[in-house]
Design a protein that fits this description.
This protein is of the alpha+beta class. It has 13 helices and 30 strands. The protein folds into 5 domains: 30 residues, no CATH class; 138 residues, Immunoglobulin-like; 127 residues, Roll (Nuclear Transport Factor 2, Chain: A), CATH 3.10.450; 153 residues; 98 residues, Immunoglobulin-like, CATH 2.60.40. 19% of the residues lie in helices and 34% in strands. The strands form 7 sheets. It has a 7-stranded mixed beta sheet with strand order 21-17-16-30-29-26-27. Strands 11, 12, 13, 14 and 15 form a 5-stranded antiparallel beta sheet that branches. Strands 20-19-18-22-23 form a 5-stranded antiparallel beta sheet. The longest helix is centred in the middle third of the chain and has 21 residues. The protein is globular and about 65 Å long. It starts with a helix and ends in a 7-residue tail after the last strand.
Length: 631
């Protein structure tokens, strides 16, 4: 009888508590959440996110980061069991970049995906992070953390100066902000490069002095070299560049030329622009709108006096001035402006602070940029001219054609580019020439100079699209010279094809390394399917374009469909993540498909698959027009 009473009591309690002897049961746990932020010193906004299970190789694409580089998503561990690699692919200015990190458990908060986490994977797997991700190379959390600690030791002198006291602050940190300040400013001060091979060996270069060290899989806490201390000026400059960006944004938002004047150096000049009023006109799509700004991506900083570096004693830096190069981005709704700006800074009398930093401009009559790039070109019209693979430094030297102040004429028509070390000596095989294809200034209609096949410029390397091929030997020489000091590109331009009348000479610091041509020739590029290539060739006005593609060894970011019909041109861009994409019709009328036998010339069309390989912008460009001279 007693047992029956006890059971009745338990049943009555169960009606209220759902279990004998306990309170309400907890709901079943939801799927694990992975969250964090991607940064390169500027937020990796709108980045494609890919998670790979190292158990099964299964890949999951949960979407994109937000404008601040942040991400948060659920993961079904039954389908994608841990551990994982996470990959973020984004672009800023002339760069398309991918960064990686390692996640050991089913979920994780505060994951920081950055150059240092990518480098830790590379050292732990003894290959580039790209290859480790693609080939599903398993590493342990202990190995990953140990390599991160070695990287911390290598850059400790600089990390401590920006408030980072241990490596974990750059690996897992729920409070991390990709805003170019504090710990995040480190990535504006130090550049992480691969050594141009596929080994995973790293070259760390300080953007504020040019000196580099090399790390390998065999580097240990005891043996690793250390980057020198460059004091506190570097982080102060990074902060002031970002302050200047906010100043510019306010001027645009208020449509206020007086406010913009506060942001500009007295000697500001950038291509054809030299006043705040002209800036407001140039970027009219930003004026009067609420602007979203990102932290700048700093490329390099140097003193005007080449005998000074950021490692110099403060007593010798008092009153010194210099130039920094950085990429800024302004967004207003659907409009976006990427601006590669140069800033002039002045050090205070004590040599320990900055008294002034303002937008200075490139001080040139037209655009100029140099950056690593890797490209493969394929024709879809059956012709065989101007195709192939080129890897090296992309050289953009504007002629001044079409700039308002020039009356549509060219300022310059030829140039010499010389790669040199910190002593000013030329690197072997590092001198090359460019020219306007139409010749002298009166005839030049090209907006940018083309790369010459030789010093006489009797012909042009049109397959390269302005990329100077860097051999394995030259890549090795660049690395060796970086260990001693700054390596740079000296660009001298001329107003005549004989290169006798100089227009300007400008020097651009090289802190990023290209992929050696020998390596480039062996990788598997992203590709369009055969049917997609045919669809591009046959495309005609008023039709959409659907394509299928494979990524190969490349971390893809976007696809660009482009059509040119004389003075009329249009393009369409889409993010790439699923293996297929569709572009709506372009607003270019009366364009017909190309003839299969190319019996007549047609209108130019191209499809470019854009991504990164070992942190170098990488493109596969399919094009056709049935004109053998097109490129």
């Amino acid at each position: 009888m007693k047992k029956i009473k006890n059971r009745l009591v338990c049943l009555i309690v169960l009606a209220f508590l759902h279990s004998c002897g306990g309170g309400p049961s907890s709901p079943p746990p939801g799927p694990p959440v992975i969250s964090g932020v991607g940064s390169i010193g500027a937020p990796m906004g709108s980045a494609n996110i890919t998670l790979k299970s190292l158990q099964t190789g299964g890949q999951f694409s949960p979407g994109n980061t937000d404008s601040d580089g942040k991400f948060s998503f659920n993961i079904d561990t039954a389908v994608y069991p841990p551990p994982y690699f996470i990959r973020l692919t984004s672009e800023l200015g002339d760069k398309t970049i991918s960064q990686f990190s390692y996640i050991s458990g089913a979920g994780g908060a505060g994951i920081v995906v950055s150059p240092i986490s990518s480098a830790a994977i590379a050292l732990a797997s003894n290959r580039t992070a790209d290859a480790a991700f693609s080939n599903q190379i398993s590493i342990s959390k202990n190995d990953f953390d140990a390599k991160a600690e070695i990287l911390y030791k290598a850059a400790k002198n600089i990390l401590v100066s920006v408030g980072v006291t241990n490596s974990s602050q750059l690996i897992t940190n729920s409070g991390y902000k990709a805003n170019g300040s504090g710990a995040d400013s480190f990535f504006d001060i130090v550049k992480f490069n691969y050594d141009g091979t596929l080994s995973g060996d790293l070259v760390l270069t300080t953007k504020f002095s040019g000196k580099a060290i090399k790390l390998t899989n065999l580097s240990t806490i005891q043996s690793v070299e250390s980057l020198g201390s460059i004091g506190s000026l570097s982080s102060k400059i990074v902060g002031l560049i970002n302050t200047n960006i906010q100043c510019l944004a306010t001027g645009f938002e208020q449509s206020n030329s007086s406010k913009l004047d506060e942001c500009l150096d007295d000697s500001f000049k950038d291509s054809s622009i030299s006043t705040s009023t002209e800036l407001l006109t140039l970027w009219s799509n930003l004026v009067g709108q609420s602007l979203l700004t990102k932290a700048a991506d700093v490329k390099w900083c140097d003193f005007d006096d080449s005998s000074l570096t950021f490692e110099s004693e403060a007593s010798s830096l008092g009153g010194a001035s210099g130039i920094c190069s950085a990429v800024n981005e302004f967004k207003a709704g659907g409009s976006s402006v990427i601006f590669p700006g140069r800033y002039r800074f002045t050090v205070n009398a004590n040599g320990d602070g900055i008294v002034s930093l303002k937008l200075y401009g490139n001080q040139l009559p037209a655009a100029l940029s140099v950056f690593p790039k890797l490209q493969k070109k394929i024709r879809t019209d059956g012709l065989t001219t101007n195709i192939g693979i080129t890897s090296g430094y992309k050289i953009n030297i504007g002629t001044g054609v079409d700039l308002p102040s020039n009356g549509d004429g060219a300022n310059l028509v030829s140039a010499r580019v010389r790669l040199k070390n910190y002593l000013g000596s030329s690197l072997n095989g590092g001198t090359f020439y460019l020219q306007c294809r139409q010749g002298n200034a009166a005839n030049c209609t090209d907006s940018f100079l083309s790369l010459c096949s030789d010093s006489n410029c009797d012909s042009f390397s049109l397959k390269s699209d302005g990329i100077f091929s860097v051999s394995a030997l030259l890549a090795e020489e660049i690395i060796e010279e970086m260990k001693s000091g700054r390596v740079s590109a000296e660009i001298t331009t001329y107003s005549d094809t004989n290169r006798t009348t100089q227009v300007y000479q400008s020097t651009i610091a090289l802190v990023s390394l290209p992929i050696g041509q020998n390596i480039a020739n062996g990788i598997t590029f992203a590709s369009l399917s055969t049917s997609s290539q045919s669809a591009l060739r046959l495309w005609s006005s008023n039709n959409s374009l659907s394509i299928n593609y494979s990524s190969g060894d490349v971390n893809l970011y976007k696809g660009i469909f482009y059509v040119n019909k004389g003075d009329s041109e249009a393009d369409s861009k889409v993010k790439l993540s699923s293996g297929s994409a569709t572009h709506s019709s372009l607003e270019v009328s009366e364009v017909m498909g190309l003839k299969s036998d190319c019996s007549v010339s047609g209108f130019y069309r191209a499809y470019t698959l854009v991504g990164s390989f070992n942190n170098v912008k990488t493109q596969t460009k399919y094009y056709g027009s049935c004109d053998s001279s097109d490129y």
